[in-house]
Amino acid sequence: MSSISNTSPMSSEASASTPSTQKSRRGKRAGGKHTGEKRFLPIRLLQTPAVALLFLWMIVPLAMTVYFSFNRYNLMSPDQTGFVGLENYQFLLEDPAFWPSIANTALLIGSVLCISVIGGTLLAVLFDQPFRGRGIARLLVIGPFFVMPTVAALIWKNMIMHPVYGMLAFVMRHLGMAPIDWLAEYPMLSVIIIVSWQWIPFAFLILLTALQSLDGDQKEAAQLDGAPGSAFSSTSCCRT
Asked: Are 192 and 108 in contact (CB under 8 A)?
């Protein structure tokens, strides 16, 4: 009886105080929520000009492209203009070069993606190891990413793949082989090599950052447990 009499006032006080405490907690949560919203409001206002500029930067060219696709627009004859509806799309679909160009584009994108990912992964694992001159070597690997596509195409065309005074022709002549006009005989392969050379550094940067963000203890534990791919990344576990 005494225990019941002792606990009943406490339970009554707790039950009596529960609604008030719940209200106070709700009030604190609501106040904290409003405070957080007020705190982030100036940040959103400061971000608005940049977001609006990026939105206009993307939407204006898209809108102009859609507009010109429904009009007759030719720079060679600017006087011939007017709304043509879907004639441009019909002409595009009926063009015999349309579907081969789609296939060539798919082949180019798929090949460049595979080469970039595989090459970037191998370079990321290699440059994750400490060795002398690693900083300079990283700059040399990243360098092609900052070369303009036009400049890269001219470098490969005139200095590397040229059949007369290109570097590949020079090496092939010294090896007793006939030089190859790469852009004339193997145009798709040449373009794949040039574009892959430019985009491998981008994949390398992303994969190297992801590799360095991994925990060394987890990689070492995966290697000891024999996880798939642990042998490939075993060299990165020994990083100091």
From this structure: yes
- Based on the fold, state whether residues 199 and 114 are members of the same structural domain: yes
- Work out the burial of residue 205: count CB atoms within 10 Å of its CB; fewer than 13 is exposed, 13-18 middle, 19 or more buried: middle
**3-state DSSP percent of the chain in helix, strand and coil, to 5:** 75, 0, 20
Residue 123's CATH number:
1.10.3720.10
To the nearest 10 degrees (0 to 180), the angle between helices 134-142 and 98-127 is 170
Q: Are residues 81 and 108 in the same domain?
A: no
Please give the residue range of the domain that contains residue 151: 95-237
Strand partners, 71: 83
**Per-residue pLDDT in tens (0 to 9) along the chain, 240 residues:** 444 444 444 444 444 445 555 555 555 554 555 555 666 677 778 888 888 999 999 999 999 989 988 988 777 877 777 888 888 888 888 888 899 999 999 999 999 999 999 999 999 988 888 888 888 888 889 988 888 989 999 999 999 999 988 899 999 999 989 999 999 999 999 999 999 999 999 999 999 988 888 777 777 777 777 666 554 555 555 444
